[in-house]
Amino acid sequence: MMKRLRRYASYYVVLLMVLSALGANNQRLHRQQWQMIDQKKTLQLELSSLRAQEAAYFGAPAVRVWALARGMIAAPEGPSAGFIFAEAAPAVEVLTPVNELEIVTVW
């Protein structure tokens, strides 16, 4: 009986160690995922600003100026045309409603 108890205790300790290693790995991956999400937001904002800078040289306003300089006729919508570049969405706090409804199931 004592041998069996020792064996089960050793199994328990080994499984506990394996579970703690899995938990530590899970936490590491969770932190890495959030870092990558933050990095993605930063890169999206950087890409947006780079596209805005690029549009100054190769976008519709630059093409319009180039065309007018060469004697082409501008379209009537040309001066009013513009660009809207992506930026970070404003932070919105979503309030979770407190639900006081209680459900009881009788079997």
Descriptive account of the structure:
With 107 residues, the chain is mainly alpha-helical. The protein has 2 helices and no strands. It has helices at residues 2-58, 60-69. Helix 1 packs parallel to helix 2 (60-69). The chain is elongated and about 100 Å long. The chain starts with a helix and ends in a 38-residue tail after the last helix. The model has no long low-confidence stretch (mean pLDDT 81).
The gyration radius over C-alpha positions equals: 31 Å
Taking the alpha carbons of the first and last residues, their distance comes to: 41 Å
Class computed from helices, strands and strand pairing = mainly alpha
What form results from the Cα inertia axes? elongated
Query: Beta-strand level of the residues, as a percent range?
Result: under 5%
Please outline the major beta sheet: none
Which residues form runs of ≥5 with pLDDT under 50? none
Number of strands: 0
Number of helical regions: 2
Mean residue pLDDT: 81
Q: SSE string, helix = H, strand = E? A: HH
Q: What is the helix fraction of residues, given as a range?
A: 55-70%
Summarize the structure.
By secondary structure, this protein is an all-alpha fold. 63% of the residues lie in helices and 0% in strands.
SSE blueprint:
Elements: H1 2-58, H2 60-69
Task: Give a quick set of tags describing it.
107 residues; mainly alpha; 0% strand
